[in-house]
Amino acid sequence: MTGLAAKAAAALERSILPSVIARGGALRVVAVEDGVATMEVTGSPGAVLPLATRIEAQVRAAVPEITAVRITAPGRQPPPGEAGSLAEQARHILDTEVNPAIAAHHGHVALEGVDHGLVRIRLEGGCQGCSLAEVTVRQGIEPLLRARMPGLAGVADVTDHEAGTQPFFTAEKR
Hints:
Helices cover about 35% and strands about 25% of the residues. It is α/β, with parallel strands linked by helices and about 170 residues long.
């Protein structure tokens, strides 16, 4: 592990890791290249996605040489640079970073479209009708997309949550 990766790992251990572990997840620093720290998440996706913005802020404050944080599932490559349309970028991020993480809850996020910088997503499977879907979108998916896509104006959840038949968290479980 390089010096920057070790510093990032130490920052995680001091501040964020206890919260992630308490929520049923694990997070480790895989690499730091060109100022971007890549971290691998395992366990519950709900443990990390809502904390993504906080994780990046803590690591960047502790290690000023790190300019961005990418959170990925095991074996996944970080998204490409700024090349490609917003729709291509959003689809890539959803497919490589979000969907592998929420698959543990039998969930999936589909890209419905992108218009004038607004990304429309539809939550499926265990996410459709989940009582924590709004938290996942607003505290996990949207900050992640904003961090990776400078042209993003916002994220709209177009899911018909009332039609969900097997939500991971029902209102009773919450």
